[in-house]
């Protein structure tokens, strides 16, 4: 549900219109039949059945937005290697061009990009692409409650000390904001049903972006991100940065009070504005008629309330790849901080663990530059009975260590709840 949202999610047009069902095309020059990526539009019921019977080995990539769902089956081409962010779009376009069997062909590439440039990026062009409307309206599974052991987790005191270390930097450096995260590793009593987890995330994330990307034969990065980094449809560009958060309650009176807090709190508004200004700076280099709302609104997920601003414009170069713009935005102050390089160094010094794909970006693009990329948050690496769950919080001068710790615990609750695992008491220990 969007509260006072200045950008309706319906404005992100259904990208299913970009796809048409394609059969075998014949290459006129050689008279030889060649198999091209098949694109098939299916009904929501069919997609729901495919999710329920999801084979994570055969279907390595899944991405669902508020208006459509894409499922890639088989692998036509794949690449896993370290790629400088400035080269992401060019590398992706090379793969897409190689996959084209004719000038009219328009293959789709899925991607998982890490937070740190030193880690490998994963690109996949599927053999078959299924597209449907959202299956979220269909009944979801109620996850059976599962017991789990905490395998490893930095203590709450360690995280709070990291926040205090960041606060000290604000007085002695140019740093204005830094996003500090933590991860917990748990072991469930039985194997985690990844298909069930995916369906439950779809159900509880009706206004966001649900994804699953295979990391290897046994593990996947699965999540439900509320934050759109950038989407492109034709020449239309849209970005919806989020920053400034409060845990959501089951009590609507309390939620109303928290919404007003977000809209009136100097600390939260300052944190949000740092993100919006950076996104606006990047988009203004590629857009004309860029529109940035003067004030943010509040959107909510099943576990959090967020300050939200939706920026829209038209690309000066309609042929530019959405991945080119995404790579210039990444990582935004929403997941790194400001200024970017100073915040990144502070994260390396304070966190002292590898985020991997957490706070990276995940999404898709086609050979014509269209696509959607979101920030890889509210996610976990899932491997049989093991789950590594991540969460972070933006730290600015008015931040309080205890409050930031509780915020990370609330964010972890999204995916733990969808998996039927309850660790609330341990998340802030």
From TrEMBL:
Q: Which InterPro entries match?
A: ADC_synthase, Chorismate_C, IsoChor_synthase
Give the EC number. 5.4.4.2
Keyword annotations for this protein, in alphabetical order, are: Isomerase
Listed GO molecular functions? isochorismate synthase activity
Gene3D superfamilies the UniProt entry points to: Anthranilate synthase (3.60.120.10)
Residues of the Chorismate-utilising enzyme C-terminal domain: 157-411
The record's section on Pfam families has: Chorismate_bind
Its catalytic activity?
A: chorismate = isochorismate
Task: Look up the domain of life of the source.
Answer: Bacteria
GO biological process assignments: salicylic acid biosynthetic process
Q: Which family does the similarity line name?
A: Belongs to the isochorismate synthase family.
* PANTHER family in alphabetical order: ISOCHORISMATE SYNTHASE ENTC
User: What protein name does the entry list?
Assistant: isochorismate synthase
Lineage here is:
Bacteria, Pseudomonadati, Pseudomonadota, Gammaproteobacteria, Vibrionales
